[in-house]
Amino acid sequence: MVSRPAARFAHLAGLVLVFAFAMFPFYWMVSSSFKDQGDLLASPPMWLFEPTIKHYAEIWADQKVTAAIVNSLIVAVSTTALAVLLGTPAAYALARFEFRGKSDLWFWFISNRMISPIVLALPVYLLAQSLGLLDTHLVLILIYLTFNLPIVVWICTDQFRSIPPELEQAARLEGAKQFDVFWRIYLPLGLPGVAVSAIFSFIFSWNELLYALVLTRRNVQTAPVAATSFMSGYELPWGKIMATGTVIVLPVTIFALIVSRHMIRGLTMGATK
Amino acid sequence: MSVEGQALAQEAARARPARRRRLEHGRWTPLFFLAPAVVTLLAIGLYPMLFALVTSFRRYNLTRAREGFPFVGFENYGRVLSDQTFWDTLLLTGRFFLTVMPIQVALGLLIALMLHRPGWGFMRSLARVSLVVPLATTYAVVGLLGNLIFNRNFGVANQFLSWFGFAPFDWLGNPSGAFAAIVIMDVWQWTPFCALIFLSGLSMVPIDIEEAARLETKSHWALLRHVQLPYLLPGLTAMLILRSADVLKLFDMIFTMTRGGPGTATELISIYIQRVGFRVFDLGAASAQAMLLLLFTILLSRLYIRIFYREIE
């Protein structure tokens, strides 16, 4: 049997190891983005080096990267706004009304979480092509709704259920219309849930690659596609790739830290809390 | 029952029928709130799927568009089902799942137990928060990062190997190395998912039961087996189903890291379908494959719903 101080120390060592394991690739990406190309290609790799912000200056000057980040922002913000706009009323109905087929509808929303993007990417490509929608923001904004809308509906339904129905009764007694009840009671009081679902929707859209790869060409390339496109040629611009990677990952990491308490709920559609 | 309690109960009894009347809604009200979301999801989700279903019954090769896209019945399905590569990629996808899942479950459980154990409060919160970072990292960037980490000449993975006295290894240049590399990156990204689910399971064990058990036994194993395990099982089921759906979806990280190569060593099902559809342009066959994939997914999600949302049904 291990003595208590030894066990305590092993616990600390384990925790430090967990932290190092989780953070290492992230650390490696960020530190590589500050390395000179010569230092990047050093073998064995260098842990101490003279940092340079050259690669950030490079991507700042590179219109392809800045345009891609703007595209990603446009797509992620619009699809999130649409998902909230369309999803919150549906969540209200699912939270408060009784009607036939309710559970089927609910399950249909949820099962969208499981569908592989490749299943939709093929037909959407053909449809977008025939409608002239390839390489537009619109097609990405719409297709991202297939996974954002369910997440907004799920999290907001859960949130709206926790609002006391007495408030609705009181408002209805005073003659409030159904829509006013939703707009003035449920939306403001459920704001935390709405915000969490919006952040998730933003993260998922920002991180998406497959649809963006298939459905866009030059004009609306998103940030992950742009970063991927540097992976060709003989000598890869590692510093630039890692700097772009850092710029892509940093904002979503901050968002994820904000919703870290809800991370698992968001990823499991609430099956575990 | 106290007087107060009786009064409350009476009030509640009076309030109940009234409440039902007041919350009544018009027959079409739910429709009004639901229609926007439902119509949108039908248009962008279901309609393309039906389109894919139709395409899967046609000869639909974009490189031979001049021949038109005639209906050919089950020809595509026949071709796909007798296509050895399709079965190989499915098998590889299964092998990938069976490799990453046990590692993620074991490591995840270990991490959760460490995070649950009292002591070292600050370091524990730091470690818990750091778990969110892999989960949020853009999947495509994980693949790019994997390319750098596992580089044959200047990758840090080979440096780690050299510390333990192993010779440098051309990870991405040979089939088993590339497979190991995508396994390691997936384990990095998704072990936190398992750890956090297990952690929430552990924190549901009523504190007095856990403390009583700790007084009874000094064995961590007995505590885990008899007290904590029942609270961990639902989470385990959830992660098994969700992770298998995720592995069927897995595309971004592998595409940016190995493009399915070398050869077809890391060509999981989504990568293969993407290649048939968008590099060979045989959309008929790719659609048939996608439909088969969809079938698996529907079975998985029915299973998930059956297990986890019983109370709503």
Automatic annotation (TrEMBL), chain A:
GO terms for biological process: transmembrane transport. One of its GO terms (cellular component) is plasma membrane. Keywords: Cell membrane, Membrane, Transmembrane, Transmembrane helix, Transport. Pfam families: BPD_transp_1 (PF00528). It is a multi-pass membrane protein. InterPro entries: BP-dep_ABC_trans_perm, MetI-like, MetI-like_sf. The chain crosses the membrane at residues 12-30, 73-94, 106-126, 138-160, 181-206, 241-259. Residues 69-259 form the ABC transmembrane type-1 domain. It is found in: Cell membrane. SUPFAM superfamilies: MetI-like. It comes from the Bacteria. CDD domains: TM_PBP2. Belongs to the binding-protein-dependent transport system permease family. This is ABC transporter permease. It comes from Chelatococcus daeguensis.
UniProtKB/TrEMBL annotation, chain B:
Residues 90-304 form the ABC transmembrane type-1 domain. It holds the Pfam family BPD_transp_1. InterPro entries: MetI-like (IPR000515), MetI-like_sf (IPR035906). It is a multi-pass membrane protein. The chain crosses the membrane at residues 31-54, 96-115, 127-150, 178-202, 223-242, 286-305. Signal peptide: none annotated. The keyword Membrane applies. Keywords: Cell membrane, Membrane, Sugar transport, Transmembrane, Transmembrane helix, Transport. It is found in: Cell membrane. CDD domains: TM_PBP2. Belongs to the binding-protein-dependent transport system permease family. This is ABC-type sugar transport system, permease component. It comes from Chelatococcus sambhunathii. The lineage of its organism: Bacteria, Pseudomonadati, Pseudomonadota, Alphaproteobacteria, Hyphomicrobiales.
